[in-house]
Design goal:
Belongs to the TACO1 family. YeeN subfamily. The protein folds into 3 domains: 71 residues, Arc Repressor Mutant, subunit A; 81 residues, 2-Layer Sandwich (Alpha-Beta Plaits), CATH 3.30.70.980; 71 residues, YebC, transcriptional regulation domain (Alpha-Beta Plaits, 2-Layer Sandwich), CATH 3.30.70.980. 44% of the residues lie in helices and 23% in strands. It contains 8 helices and 8 strands; from the N terminus they run H-H-H-H-E-E-H-E-E-H-E-E-H-E-H-E. Helix 2 packs parallel to helix 4.
Length: 239
């Protein structure tokens, strides 16, 4: 599981280095989540998850408020949640989650990114079966035993709890996201190094340096696309 945590760290570091792009994507995601229900995180669980994730990426309050105000107002942009699956160099697998207000724009852009960087689009289900939807939380200042005790006391169903790089990482079923969060909050923990709903590959692969360089260019090209919210893959990235 540590290898999976390494990929999550790499992904977060990449996002932290591209703040303006990340903030714009969160603005759309917050707006869409708020429009699905009430624009109040206490009554809208999907919105609460997005806001918790945004907090770990230090998304400014002004951007969050703007998206919520837009959802409360008369704006009625129609966004579609679409998932694309594909293959990169040497059998690598990629999942691309998008939010788009122009379906005719998104698929060709994703396909072009794959084609330009040694990959190919797959059909729905060709890749996703090799990934597990997972809630991931990271905290500091607590020991592994203390976190395990917290989860046991709260009767939270977790997959795994590990110590990684001076943090304790909790992996749980996606429907346990709020239960894990509340267990931590009951102990006074409200700051997380990571709070994500993600897709973790069941088996990671390693690529040779040339193939990894090509793969990284593919991931960068996909993440640069306006409609792309999340990119998941099964490659263990090495420095």
């Amino acid at each position: 599981m540590g290898r999976k945590w390494n990929n999550i760290k790499e992904k977060k570091a990449s996002k932290d280095a591209n703040t303006s792009r990340v903030y714009a994507k969160f603005g759309v995601e917050i707006y869409v989540a708020a429009k699905k229900g009430e624009p109040d995180p206490e009554s809208n669980r999907a919105l609460k998850v997005v806001l918790e994730r945004a907090k770990t990426y230090n998304v400014p309050k002004a951007i969050i408020d703007r998206a919520l105000d837009k959802a409360k107002g008369s704006a009625d942009e129609n966004y579609h949640e679409l998932r694309y699956e594909g293959f990169g160099p040497n059998g690598s697998m990629v999942i691309v989650d998008t939010l788009t207000n122009n379906v005719n724009r998104t698929a060709p852009a994703v396909r072009s990114a794959f084609n330009k960087h040694g990959g190919s689009m797959g059909v729905s289900g060709s890749v996703a079966y090799m990934f597990d939807s997972t809630a991931v939380f990271g905290v500091t200042g607590k020991s592994l035993d203390e976190v395990m005790e917290l989860m046991l006391e709260a009767d939270v169903d977790v997959r795994d709890i590990l110590e990684e790089d001076e943090a304790v990482i909790v992996y749980a079923e996606p429907d346990q996201f709020h239960a894990v969060q509340e267990a931590f909050k009951s102990a006074g923990i409200t700051e997380f190094t990571v709070a994500e709903l993600t897709m973790l590959a069941q088996n990671d692969i390693e690529l040779q340096p040339d193939a990894q360089l090509q793969f990284e260019k593919l991931i960068d090209a996909l993440e640069d696309l306006e409609d792309v919210q999340q990119v998941y893959h099964n490659v263990e990235l090495s420095e």
